[in-house]
Amino acid sequence: MIEISHVCKSFPDQKQQDLHVLRDISLTVEQGDIYGIIGLSGAGKSTLLRLIGLLDTPTSGTITVNGKNLASLNAREKIDYYRTIGTVFQGYNLLMQRTVADNVAFPLKLSKWEKSKIDSRVKELLELVSLSDKASAYPAQLSGGQKQRVAIARALATHPQLLLCDEPTSALDSLTTQSILDLLSDINRRLGVTIVIITHEIGVVRKICNKVAVLEGGHLVDNGLVSDIIAHQNHEITRKFFGKEEV
Fold first, then answer.
1. Quick one: which of 79, 88, 95, 246 has the most CB atoms within 10 Å?
2. Which is it for the CA torsion 56, 223, 240, 185, positive or negative?
3. Are residues 149 and 180 in the same domain?
4. For the domain that residue 41 is a member of, what is the CATH number?
């Protein structure tokens, strides 16, 4: 589904010299994967997710999604692409002055769905994330886990093929984290949505990911099946992550 080939990304620093954030990244995400991207702070995880989400472009290399090179898309095709992906953020990014139902409905209104179809879709999504009783509540009245469930429902509103998750559990306690990961796993299984999830928490990878890429200093140091990475642990940073006992 996603083919990342020799991708590099650099930004000019204060001295107008290139700061290399990603260096020669190549990996493949297949349809139906829950693909984890793990690394310490500054490893390049968020930058890579932004490139997949077409919020930025590579300095060199290519990212191909469903056979289309993202760099070649015109303005109309970019809009169509954005509709095929959903994004879940660490900080929820909910509209605080709108109800739960209105937050979930927001992307549907932007896509100019009919009101009756919006109402039906919102009801369906709130049932999916177990928040049917919170439709009229406001974000300030919700727990962190409930806010993230609303964010997940909103991300799924337009039937995306791909769900991008940016540290979706790092602000949550361990029990709430488990429930959110169970929900994402259920969405992947029931809806067939491919999920790319960036994290610095090894428990997230162990819990739901079938594949993982390990980044360090902008380099891809390991990637493949989670079971293979755990078994071999070929690199020091991989051993630091997977050699630890799961908390």
1. 88
2. positive
3. no
4. 3.40.50.300
Rounded to the nearest 10 degrees, the angle between the axes of helix 174-191 and helix 144-155 is 20
Cα angle vertex 162, ends 226, 78, to 5°? 135
164 to each of 14, 46, 121, 146, how far by Cα in Å? 30, 10, 21, 19
Give the closest residue to 65 by CA, choosing from 78, 52, 46: 52
Q: List phi, psi (to 5°) of 133.
A: -80, 0
DSSP symbol at 15: T
Pair (152, 198) in one structural domain:
no
Q: How distant is the alpha carbon of residue 231 from its chain centre?
A: 26
pTM over 0.90: yes
The residues, ordered by sequence, that sit 6+ positions from 218 with a Cβ below 8 Å of its Cβ are 20, 21, 22, 23, 43, 44
* pLDDT tens digits, one per residue of 180-222: 999 999 999 999 999 999 998 889 999 999 999 999 999 999 9
Both 149 and 165 in a single domain? no
Residue 138 DSSP code: -
8 Å CB contact between 197 and 155: no
Return phi, psi of residue 26, to 5°.
-135, 125
* Structural domain contains residue 39: yes
SS3 1: coil
